[in-house]
Amino acid sequence: MAMNPDEPLTLLGGLTARAFLRDYWQKKPLLVRQAIPGFESPLSPEELAGLACEAGVISRLVCERGESGPWALRTGPFDENDFTTLPGSHWTLLVSDIEKHLPELRSYLEPFRFIPDWRMDDLMVSYAAPEGSVGPHVDEYDVFLLQAQGRRRWQIASQPVSGDDFLPGIELRILRTFHPDQEWVLEPGDLLYLPPRIPHHGVAVGPCMTWSVGFRAPAWRDLLAAWVDQRYETLAAQDRYADPGLEPQENPGEISASALARLIAGLRNAMAVDDAELARWLGTQLTEPKAELLEHMQVPETLTDDEVRSLLEGSDILERHGAARMAWIRQDQGFCLFINGQEHLLPIGTESLLRYLCEAHLYEPRMLMRLSATCGEAQDLLKALCKAGVLLPVNE
Q1: Which of 54, 328, 366, 394 is the most buried (most CB within 10 A)?
Q2: Could you report the average pLDDT of every consecutive run of 10 residues in the chain (396 residues)?
Q3: Element (H, E) at 83
Q4: pTM of the model
């Protein structure tokens, strides 16, 4: 069910989603005490450490006082010995994409879906020993920091950050100078929203866990590089600059105005695209899963048509794979549905199915069959999603 943008939300301290997006989103921080009253983390530090030991899980250990010097960074997967040899303080374990590995935690992201799904990156959970931190830093994304266990002191600064304002010689981008002008200690259930590029520093007051709900925005240069690569693949090697009717020129060292005009026109033609084509390409880019998660998107064995039919007709409920990303756009002749970087074209009349697929994470197979009953393309899509492991029975 769509959220009412004008309903006051406890998560936002009584602000409506509309008011928050207007006054705070990408503008200024917001601290909300007891955004989730009485919050108790369903994930223990031991379970988090266990997850960090699994292959395919993105995890990091940050030690402020590392054996090789300050601010040592190690990446997982880890083993039990990695944790038993840690000091008693000044270290942090961070595990990314928690909701993709533990689908039962996806419900905690539902209150944040007044922001479009394509902007949501992940739920990252950190455990910090006393005085644990990752140093003062800035992020390039919007983040909601929910205190899950224990207490953490957050400091933020209004100082501008330049491109070289970081400690040299370490893997982490830690600010060289940090002069906080606001400070809070967060208790379980408290929430701090930070826009991009706000210098901040969180230090554990005793052992604590923090949940970070991050929303990334694509960098223009990354999109441009990907688009140029895509266009490059479509150009034939024999398509080159040509200048029939070339006139003699007095100075052979000059690139003439007419040559420049032909070169510029040729490049523009090579890059030419209409808005509809560019929109469809963007849909594939914005739903592309992280490379580290791609190998976990497939079911162990390819399902037969009979097994797919049994899955759709015999299951009580299906769920979306935790790592699956979905979005759709409306076009003149129908709809484009994007799933994990792949485009699927569907005709007019399938909007109810698209909405159901993209808004829900748990599906009634009978509803899926009913919404696709009159459309062969939609039925083929559902079968393909089952075979790809995007739709799974809940008991798996």
Answers
A1: 328
A2: 86 98 97 97 97 94 83 94 94 96 92 96 97 95 98 94 84 91 98 97 98 95 93 90 92 94 93 89 93 65 83 90 93 93 95 96 95 95 92 78
A3: helix 80-84
A4: 0.91
